[in-house]
Amino acid sequence: MFSPVEDEEAVVNTQLGGLQIGSQSAKIVNASSLPFENRGVRMSVFEAFINTHSGKEYECQKDYFDASKGSVKKPFNEMTTTDVCSILLKPIVTAEKSSYVDYLVKHKDPAVVSKAQVFISHAWKYKFNSLVNALRNHFKDQPDIFIWFDLFSNNQIEAPNLDFHWWSGTFRKAIEDFGYVVMVCSPWKDPIPFTRAWCLFEMYIAKITNSKFEVAMSEEDKADFMQTIKSDSSQYFKMLGNINVEKSECFNEDDKKAIFSVVDTLPRKSHTINAMICEQMREWCLGMLKNVDENASLRDIVRQKYSYADMLRNRGEYDEALALYTEVLGLYKDLD
């Protein structure tokens, strides 16, 4: 028997097939002339970018949609991904109107660019340094993985001219092709991506394409996350309670309208996409809890297995939860 989420997933896949959504935007000019860039970069590119600019200050606009609001000086480690794109990356690629991966191949080191293996979902209002810190921690055992990160892979000169139809197709094709999505999550108790329409849309696409899904956190955030859910799993469910596509925001109002038009085609509208995203997060969290560090203290192992059993019970997997509760009771005796 299929769960309600699985039933809706089947309907969604049938209805949305190629995401042929009409755009609300009039900006697009000859979208078909800009092919999807499927190349990504190694982590060394992120590190080099930070090493080049770390310790410096830059004049950043307060609002990139309203220049009249003026500017403010920011140290590099306080700059958002939006700041980095506008102030540091665009001047490099403007003359050739190319993507940064193109620039690297032509002018730097072609070896750091190749077909991407993972798609990164993130909020552009994150501090760039913090985002890289999360990716560095997540891929510490995969230093040579090629990462599709829109700042570097997309053509940031042409990107603002593209409508939702192009973007939605881009994300679906990318996620289907790579089959692997990592979302940068910070702060974990109230993640910014849960408030961004595009990030929720990307998570939704990851779900309906059956892509591998993981969450990237800094080492400190991940340790805090694990300790918190082992002692109080209700905090995790509070985090899931923040997922509501209807309350999400988008830099481009036309894109937001187009995303919501997709939501309106779903069997139970916003509830469908919210449920799918929550399921995605639960599956990831269960994987985290299932992976017990056998070198940890017995007390930590007991707490983690107990939290894992709690989540299985909340999913309705009662037999598996009962088996774990029984195991935990046996371990408790060894704590005495």
Specify the helix fraction band: 40-55%
User: In the residues, how many domains can be counted?
Assistant: 2
Residue runs with pLDDT of under 50 for 5 or more positions: 1-32
**Distance separating the two termini:** 43 Å
What is the count of DSSP helices, taking H or I runs of 4+ residues?
14
> What structural class should be given to the helix and strand makeup?
alpha/beta
Which term fits the overall shape? globular
Sheet of most strands:
4 strands, parallel
Instruction: Estimate the strand proportion.
Output: 5-15%
**Averaging pLDDT over every residue, what do you get?**
81
Q: What is the H/E order? A: HEHEEHHEEHEHHEHEHHHHHH
Query: Largest sheet, order of strands side by side?
Result: 6-5-7-8
**Tally of extended strands?**
8
Rg calculated over all Cα atoms:
21 Å
Describe the structure.
It is a single chain. By secondary structure, the protein is of the alpha/beta class. The radius of gyration is 21 Å and the shape is globular. The chain folds into 2 domains: 4-51 and 85-292, no CATH class; 293-336, no CATH class. The chain has helices spanning 4-16, 43-53, 81-93, 100-107, 128-138, 150-153, 164-178, 197-208, 219-231, 234-240, 253-263, 270-290, 298-314, 318-335, and strands spanning 39-41, 57-61, 71-75, 113-115, 118-121, 147-148, 180-184, 212-216.
